Amino acid sequence: MNKKKLMVHDFFRMKQAGEKITWLTSYDYPTAQFAEAAGMEMILVGDSLGMCVYGYDGTVPVTMDQCIVHCEAVARAAPNTFIVGDMPFGSYQVSDEAAVINATRFLKEAGVDAVKLEGGTRVITRIKAILDAGIVVIGHIGLTPQSSGQIGGHKAQGRTVASARLVIEDALAIEAAGAQMLLVEAVPPEVAGFIARKLTIPVFSIGAGAECDGQLLIVSDLIGQFTAFTPKFVKKYANVAEVITTAMRAYVNEVKNVTFPTDAHCYHMIKGEEDGFKKLVKEYE
Ligand code: KIV
After folding, report:
1. What's the pTM value of the predicted model, to 2 decimals?
2. How far is the CA of 166 from the centre of ligand 1 (A)?
3. What residue ranges define each of the domains in the chain, with the CATH number in brackets?
């Protein structure tokens, strides 16, 4: 599918027109190619790669260098899709200056179109500093996995009035800081929907209901590749883990039974070389 790369102003136009925006994570070249071919409008190279690709327990160990390598592969595979680099834990917590240096790396070394960082009011100076460097910023509030220790684990947020107020305050602060888009994770749909209507910037949901301007899912959940656990908000559109395991099991069996490879999978001697080869074998006998 030959498609045009959409940019921030297109996402604003789509919000105003009520057209939903599609967003999915990808971490590698083939998956990003599939996402672009499927018509995905945005790709997030999420720090969820820590769990989905590297097998870590969470996202905290993920480094800038890992993110850059995966962003490079994805950007090569999906040149006509808006690519977002996810700022990993430790890349923006220390100072505004560190945040700008690392956000800049995403653009210069990996060719992404925007960066995303977690947190609301507490990261406003970071967001402003990155914006001042001319980089498109996407906020991420609600359940913020990098600080799951502080918010009581991977738990939905905004489920009480007091907690909903905090999520709304974060959203308002992020828009006021100038961020171009916002992701709301694991928040009741009425809270996320209110935020989407209240803000002029596009607001995305991951586990925050259908009322937002767009949806994000983790590709490893969507295709059924990540099996450790499945959050409530995930819809599995395929069971790739089963497909892959079945294929691998069949391969194991066929190798053991010598039913693979067959003649069809072999290269044969070039015509006229057979007799010469028999002589060659004799030399070694
Ligand atoms: O890293 C990621 O994939 C994310 C999602 C959980 C929103 O940040």
Report:
1. 0.95
2. 20
3. 8-238 (3.20.20.60), 249-284 (no CATH)
